[in-house]
Amino acid sequence: MSEVEFEPQHPRLFIPNFLSLNECRVRFLLYFFLRLNLFVFLFTLVLVKELEFIHKSCSTVGYRPNVFSTTLSHLIATNSSHFIIPFVPIRERLKEKLEQFFKCEYELFIEFTGLISWSRGASIGWHSDDNRPYLKQRHFSAVCYLNTYGKDFSGGLFHFQDGEPASIMPKAGDVVMYTADDHNVHSVDEITEGERLTLALWFSRDGSHDEDVKLISLLSQHILHKNMADSYLPLPASSNMYWFSQDQASDYQFGFNICWARLHVLGYDIYISQDSGIEFDVSELLVKPVHLVRGNELLDQEFVNIMHALQVVHFFCWKGSALQNKVSNVDSKVVKVTDMQREKISGLNSVLLNDDDFASRVFGCMPSEENGCICFDWSGIMAATAAWEDYASNLSKQIHLQLPNWRMHEAIYDVQLDE
Ligand SMILES: O=C(O)CCC(=O)C(=O)O
Ligand SMILES: [Fe+2]
Q1: What does the pLDDT look like over 128-175, one tens digit per residue?
Q2: With left for phi above 0 and alpha for psi between -120 and 50, is residue 255 left, alpha or beta?
Q3: Is there a domain that residue 413 lies in?
Q4: How many domains does the chain have?
Q5: What are the transmembrane regions (predicted)?
Q6: CATH number, domain at 199?
Q7: Looking at the structure, do residues 142 and 194 belong to the same domain, yes or no?
Q8: How far is the CA of 123 from the centre of ligand 2 (A)?
């Protein structure tokens, strides 16, 4: 499908391959060295995989049943502000493209940015995006697809009620933009398998809804006066934000902790070494140091909390084979799980993941060759721990460098810093 022309009755734009066409500054340089197809594919993949990593290691339960979200303010609140950096160029380019297409240059403000994933059972009927009194400030929408129909999920087709294109089959890197009013009533079919991931943005003409101003103020409170050395270790939000249950009621009897579940579907268990009498207080558990366990083996390396372990495991999923065989002293770090540890692990699983099949149904991947994440190899996990630290501290440095400029201009933008 190519870019669809402007229909006055249905102001909208579909852009195939937006990420690869826009994301890379060195595109033209590299063009001469690489075959275009391979090149386009590689550059779509980099950002898509990075945003997927961020979402799978930071998301909370979302605003609708079976939906998960990662908002930028949530990243700040959980000491993960540095993960805002990968969003900055794509956010800016989506805004530029939208303003140019809808002929409202310099008139719009980003009102909301979020990674949104829909798992099995999620859907939305006909609606416009400004269809609630508290959403009237939303004037335009942009949805950037981060994974692909038929490969990563089934169901989840997007439909406009009238006009062209009538339907969109999500593909990683494609973007759809439309006015948020009733000229663009749309729906999304129920997801029947896998997890459908998008980067969603809303735009407003009303400066009082400028997301940048709110984020800069939060960032200033959170990071300006903090010691840089530990500024990238995650802090979990309140435990109910990670508690998933079918009916969205925060009932600890039925459902699961999504951090626990995301590790579990990749084959990991968690062991909390610190003994405590209040073991079953979920909010306490989330802030305790943990060890990763796989089958009968435990990695003798402490993560500051479950979010830290989750980020490292998903970092390994992202970087994959590049991190394998990088560490040699693995054997000394892997120990057998004792009976007592096993009992504790099972006890925690019964509290935080009381329905195994349910978790796998929600977070299970589609069976496909590329989806077969190698996600296991202790030496890879150890290498990922170190590489994750480099990655996070580098992003953290960048946000410290960029923030003064953002504060000065009251806007989040891709500051070109001299090396
Ligand atoms: O993810 C999509 O394709 C659209 C989602 C949507 O319509 C919404 O969140 O309002
Ligand atoms: Fe919508």
Answers
A1: 999 999 999 999 999 999 999 999 999 999 999 999 999 999 999 999
A2: left
A3: no
A4: 2
A5: 28-48
A6: 2.60.120.620
A7: yes
A8: 10
On whether residue 401 sits in a domain, the answer given is no
pLDDT digits (tens, 9 = 90+) for 267-322: 999 999 876 655 567 778 889 999 999 999 999 999 999 999 999 999 999 987 77
* Structural contact between residues 299 and 384, judged by C-beta atoms closer than 8 angstroms: no
pLDDT tens sequence across 172-198 = 999 999 999 999 999 999 999 999 999
Give the whole-angstrom CA distance, residue 308 versus residue 226: 19
**Average predicted confidence (pLDDT) for the chain:** 87
Checking ipTM against 0.95, whether it exceeds it is yes
For residue 99, the number of C-alpha atoms closer than 13 Å in the C-beta half-sphere is 16
The residue whose CA has the least distance to atom 5 of ligand 1 is: 188
Q: Looking at ligand 1, which atom is closest to the CA of residue 187?
A: 7
Nearest CA to ligand 1 atom 10: 129
Dump pLDDT digits (tens) for 19-74.
Answer: 886 544 444 545 555 555 555 555 667 899 999 999 999 999 998 889 999 999 99
The residue whose C-alpha atom lies closest to atom 7 belonging to ligand 1 is 187
Domain span at 255: 239-395
Per-residue tokens: 151: 């490969």
Q: Where among 194, 225, 256 does a domain terminate?
A: 225
List pocket residues of ligand 1, CB cut-off 6 Å.
124, 129, 143, 158, 186, 188, 198, 200
- Which residue matches tokens 């439309």? 178
H or E stretch including 398? helix 378-409
Q: Is 411 contained in some domain?
A: no
